[in-house]
Amino acid sequence: MPYMPQVVTRPDRYRVHADQYAHYQREGYLVVPSLLNQTDVETLRDWADGLYNGQIPVGGHDPYDPEMSAAEKSARVTRIHMLHRNQPVAEWGLLHPRLLDVLEALIGPDVLALQSMLFFNPPGMGGQGWHQDAYYITTYPETLIGAWIALEDVDIENGCLWVAPGSSNEPVYPDAEPFQSVHATEAFDSLPPARNASSLDDEANSLSKVAARYPEIIPVPMKAGDVLFFHSHLLHRSYPNKTKDRFRRAYVCHYCNARSWVPWNHGESYEGDSGNYLHILARGQTHLPYAAPAFGTKVDLPVIDPGKPAAGKRMMAMPDGQMMEM
Ligand SMILES: O=C(O)CCC(=O)C(=O)O
User: Fold this and answer.
1) What domains lie within the chain, and their CATH numbers?
2) Ligand 1 centroid to 123 CA: how many Å?
3) What element of type H or E holds 208?
4) So what's the pLDDT on residue 126?
5) Which entry of 4, 185, 264, 288 is 20 to 30 Å from 139 by CA?
6) Contact in structure between 222 and 150 (CB atoms under 8 Å)
7) Which atom number of ligand 1 is nearest to the Cα of residue 254?
8) Per-residue confidence at 32, pLDDT binned at 50, 70, 90?
9) Annotated Gene Ontology MF terms (predicted)?
């Protein structure tokens, strides 16, 4: 079937600069300031507030008690996963066209939306030790990427993310249990298992030592509406919110190239040998199965005319060493 990626033009389309692309490839992360406007951030934040305060019911959590104290609320929930499967606003945020514009440039053209996580991190809560996201979400070939959307200003005090720039060049350190989280471990001469990945205890978490080999480990302070894109091999972490009166709300979503095979469904079962059919095609096309948005969020997929020849250039090497267009 003839298919060439076609960029959909919109007046607010975000165009990635070559320097931004190179920064992402070199350092393993990229912050795009003000990718979401304040209206969109408020939509996500109001929704997060509704969930946190119990006005919007969340499956799997205790029913709302209007008398709950701040301490009871924060003990009730610090983060919620996969909300895009049952909440229209979560699906809208996951498939936000400006996020997809950047993803199309960094891992596209074909983009599959896999996962969503809403972090509340009220005062005193949250924090996740050093880890690599590809340890948790498997994509073959590995094309996983995270998009960390700041729903309010984040800094060292309220628990922003920290990254080890360049650590995206590390392999994924596998689970102690073989075959659970990484491919081809036998292809490596020595690949020590990740012990206690994500633990806040740096002595227990073996990835702390890998991160410490990097010359700088930096915090990533952000303004509400900024988005941090980060490579799935990048070592990153966060600390608990140290403030007494500020939340650290973030909406964090994961994507991969839609041509990757994804034997993953957030720990849930799936039919057959891959979960691709459960994940939403957000841009482009794929030869693999995929899902459509459940709540009708619009995605820009190309209309393919099977009768139209592919638009790609075909080149041929000439005897004099030059390339000629056919
Ligand atoms: O936001 C956080 O505290 C941790 C997020 C994170 O590490 C991730 O999404 O992989």
Assistant:
1) 18-301 (2.60.120.620)
2) 17
3) helix 207-212
4) 95
5) 4
6) yes
7) 9
8) very high
9) dioxygenase activity
For the Cβ of 126 lying below 6 angstroms from any atom of ligand 1, the answer is yes
* Ligand 1 atom closest to Cα of residue 131: 7
Instruction: Count Cα atoms within 13 angstroms, Cβ side, for 158.
Output: 21
How large a percentage of the chain has pLDDT more than 70? 93
Weakest-pLDDT range from 59-68, 113-122, 218-227, 298-307:
59-68
How far apart are the C-alpha atoms of 24 and 19, rounded to whole Å? 9
Q: Is the CB of 85 under 6 A from ligand 1?
A: no
pLDDT band per the 50, 70, 90 thresholds, residue 96: very high
- Number of other residues whose CB lies within 10 A of the CB of residue 126: 21
238 lines ligand 1 (CB under 6 A): yes
- Phi, psi for residue 103 in degrees, rounded to 5: -60, -35
Strand 218-220, strand 128-131: pairing: unpaired
- The candidate with the shortest Cα–Cα distance to 139, out of 232, 220, 201, is 232
Nearest by Cα to 111 from 267, 248, 244, 300 = 300
C-alpha span between 48 and 151 (Å, rounded)? 9
Per-residue confidence (pLDDT) for residue 74, from 0 to 100 = 82
Give distance in angstroms: CA of 198 to centre of ligand 1.
9
- For the whole prediction, is pTM greater than 0.70? yes
Whether 146 lines ligand 1, by a CB cut-off of 6 Å, is: yes
CA–CA distance, 135 with 231 (Å, rounded to integer): 12
Query: SS3 letters for 14-76?
Result: CCCCHHHHHHHHHHCEEEECCCCCHHHHHHHHHHHHHHHHCCCCCCCCCCCCCCCCHHHHHHH
Please report where in the chains the tokens 């009768």 appear, as a residue.
Answer: 307
At 101, which helix (H) or strand (E)? helix 97-106
Q: Is the CB of 120 under 6 A from ligand 1?
A: no
